Amino acid sequence: MTASPGRHAPLPPYSFVPGHGLPHPVTDPAGHLRGRERLAPLAADALARLRADPAGRREAITALLAEHPSWLHAIDLFNAGYYWEAHEAWEGFWHVLGRTTPEARLVQGLIRLAAACVKIREGVPEGVKRHALRARELLADAVPGDHGADSRDSDALGLSCTSIASVLRELETYRPECWHTSRTPVVRVLTADLRAAPCE
């Protein structure tokens, strides 16, 4: 594996899709993550030292994530069509952020976006709808009805709320004839990307 220009880490040789015949990345001896050192999410002790007030804490977490290789790699994975792998990468952050904190809910929303994309590749329309709906619920603070999102970009852990809204809209408007069940090693099913929020 070689790193692509502008990528934060090398991309895997394939994106895992259940039932598509490629080795499970972790449990199969031929899996692309098996026995490899993975990029670690934020350290719990780094979070323990953050400010206690919610706004200051969110700002500090956003600053940590903006430079964290695992966070940046997860975004690269998602944007390149490695949805299962992005889901796995974000799950580590979800756990470290406390699973029920406001920040963890945002990460869980990203996890649901990735899960919906996996369901597109699997050809499971109800799964796409279910995960997209849950993603919208979890990301509601960042993307309130898709209106006025630009002014709230700092609330989405450094991600552009406009880009999150674009991904949600695309997932919610998929039609059955659009679902891609190709067994190609990597298929990008969305045209929208997750992007960093613009600097103020």
Please supply descriptive tags for the structure shown above.
200 residues, Hyaluronidase domain-like, mainly alpha, 7 helices, disordered N terminus
Description:
This protein is mainly α. The chain has a domain at 46-178: Hyaluronidase domain-like. It has seven helices and no strands. It starts with 43 loop residues before the first helix and ends in a 28-residue tail after the last helix. The model is unreliable at 1-5 and 147-154 (pLDDT under 50).
What is the compact description of this entry?
It contains seven helices and no strands.
Describe the protein's topology:
Elements: H1 44-48, H2 54-66, H3 69-80, H4 83-96, H5 102-122, H6 125-138, H7 161-172
Helix pairs in contact: 3-4, 4-5, 5-6
CATH domain class name of the domain at 46-178: Mainly Alpha
Beta-strand residue fraction? under 5%
Number of helices: 7
CATH fold topology of the domain at 46-178: Hyaluronidase domain-like
| Number of extended strands | 0
Could you give the order of the helices and strands?
HHHHHHH
- Outline the biggest β-sheet: none
- Radius of gyration based on Cα positions: 16 Å
Low-confidence stretches: 1-5, 147-154
